[in-house]
Amino acid sequence: MLVGYNVLSNLKIYISRGVLGHLKMLEMEANNLELKQQELRQRGRQEELNANLQALLSKRDQLKAEIKANTSLQKMRTLLDQTGVPYERNEDVDNLEDGSDNSQLLLMMARHTQLKDLLHAHHLIGGYDVLQTRKGKGVCVSLATAYEGVYLETYNLEIDLGSNLRICRHNIPPFIPLERLVTQGNMQTDIRDFLDTLSQYLNAYAGRKQQLHLTKEIHSSVQVAESNALCTILVLMFTIPGEKAEAALCTLQYADHTQRLPTRVNIESEDTALVSSPQWKKNQALLLETPLHTALVTMKKTGSIA
Amino acid sequence: MDDSTKRILQRLIRRIPSQMLQTMLGKWAHLSREDLHSLDFTQPKWVLTEQLLALCEENGLRVKHITELEMIYIIENPNQGMWHGFQLLDAEEDAPSIELTQFKKQFKANLTELISNVSIKIKKHTDEAIWIRVAWGDNFTKPNHLKPTYVVHHLQTPYVFVTGLTSKYKPLLNQALVLATRYGSMKDAHLSGRNLTAIRDLLMRQYQQVFPTKNPKPLQEKNPVPRNPNIEKEHAENTENRLQMACEAFGDGTLPQLQKAVYKLETKFRDNSNKTLTDREEPFRGVVEFASTNLLESLRHCVSSGMASTPVTPLLSSITQKGRNYFVITDKGV
């Protein structure tokens, strides 16, 4: 009977121990897991913070280096500006160069910024503007034209930067002798000269065209008998005030295509006496020296033309 | 009026559409106002033709007056027939200062020297273009007014546009033009089309070209296709780039109306799946022709909508950049 009682109590304890123990075991396991997860999370957070720290540190170093480079660039740039000869080497600049790659590069960068500012200033005063295209393999030059303070057309040239400079496309009108200017102006060796001459031709053409346009607008009594696309030949018909209301034919020839004023003025009329009068001689001189539309205003005021 | 003159007049009246006839006759100014009023323009053409014939006989009008009418009609409606572009090369020193009377005198003198029986009419249009009408004859026949050649030239530019020229008279015309304009030679510009304004605008670059600028204004698509705004937002930058490249290659706004581009291939056949043709030594001759009512507009749309890959292949952009629409492609290049 004792054995039975023992067995029974053992069984009871075993059973009770089993379930409770099991539960306790589970509880311990859960606790362990919880601890492990917390540890992992903390470690993860720590790693993340570490990584952040590293990134920020490297960024700070990078920025410090940039600031340093920029200040030396500024110093180099002020030196270049002071010496006033940006394109040639001189002693001060040479002294700054200690032969290392870094300073060479810095010099190049300073010259680059100087050139960019110069081009921007040139563009602001109405000169031409140069833009890089196709990732540095080409440039686009924009030539602005203006007359009497008013901006007129802008012409563009796209130049290919190979071993030889080559114009690949442009919107310059066909009566401007572009090919001749390219060879005469030595575009390969002296592109500034070429661009300056081209700009001169274009501005002169724009000026002459604008004079004709203004004349047509303001002076409707003056008839345009003949004109050409390049605006180098102009034949106008004036009406001379008087009882007979005679007509005078005025031929203006602009032989110099880089100028906005005519090189020759011829006035013809049936009334030859009138045309050779001192008043008309003055008018002829006036047309040679002042732009067309202003000259006509004066001529109207003095009563030479209607 | 003799029979040939009558025939010329009949042909011409048949050619001019009825709506334009009245204005053309008014511009012609060889018939008096009463005569013009007496014509009833609602009648069928053959009746009008008879009446006009009678009026011209009354007024004693001759061939040269009738050709004037034809010239007026062609100048007003130049976009018919096939026009070919030519380029003058090797300008001499005084080429830029040629003026109208000089050119007219020289051209007439040169051409009459080369071929005796020829009828030339030169007229300057308001847009500074010189129109020349040439009727060719030879030593034994009078000039043939039924098949005239028309030439358009803008002074101080190296371009000439010709229609109706047969190969027999081509060298004569070439020589006369070259001498009169003070250039060295004239070559084919490989640009042809029915629309004179289109090929003129293309060669003389009178359409709106687009160049890279510092502050690019966003180019707008004229007829945007309705699309999903989310997809549009994703592709905004790409679309803008494509549009910029399309406009740089072909132009902005209204483009010259070309109808055809022809590429003649003389390259070796290259396709691994077809051994017989690939092994041949001679080049494979083929012709690729693009035709459309407005070729440049369709090409620009292909590029801007992404159908053609960017950057634009130089084969297509050469049409606008070089101003030609006939290309021969060999293995060494275009």
What does this protein structure show overall?
Chain A: This is Centromere protein O. Chain A: Residues 23-66 form a coiled coil. Chain A: It is found in: Chromosome, Centromere; Nucleus. Chain A: Belongs to the CENP-O/MCM21 family. Chain A: Keywords: Centromere, Chromosome, Coiled coil, Nucleus. Chain A is of the alpha+beta class and 306 residues long. Among the domains of chain A are: 128-205, Copper Amine Oxidase, Chain A, domain 1; 220-301. Helix content of chain A is 57%, strand content 19%. Chain A has 8 helices and 8 strands, in the order αααββββααββββααα. Chain A has helices at 2-83, 91-96, 101-124, 178-184, 191-218, 272-275, 278-289, 292-301; strands spanning 128-133, 138-147, 150-161, 165-170, 223-227, 233-239, 247-253, 264-269. In chain A, the strands form 2 sheets. Chain A has a 4-stranded antiparallel β-sheet. In chain A, a hairpin with a 2-residue loop joins strand 2 and strand 3 (150-161). The longest helix of chain A has 82 residues, at 2-83. The radius of gyration of chain A is 43 Å and the shape is elongated. The model of chain A has no long low-confidence stretch (mean pLDDT 83). Chain B is α+β, with helices and mostly antiparallel strands and 334 residues long. Chain B has 13 helices and 9 strands. Chain B has helices spanning 3-15, 18-28, 33-38, 45-59, 63-76, 100-114, 170-181, 196-203, 229-234, 236-250, 275-278, 295-304, 314-323, and strands at residues 83-91, 118-124, 129-136, 149-154, 159-163, 183-193, 260-267, 284-291, 326-330. In chain B, strands 2-3-4-5-1-6 form a 6-stranded antiparallel β-sheet, with helices on both faces. Chain B has a 3-stranded mixed β-sheet with strand order 8-7-9, with no helix packed on it. In chain B, helix 1 (3-15) packs across helix 4 (45-59). The longest helix of chain B is centred in the first third of the chain and has 15 residues, at 45-59. The radius of gyration of chain B is 25 Å and the shape is globular. The mean pLDDT of chain B is 83.
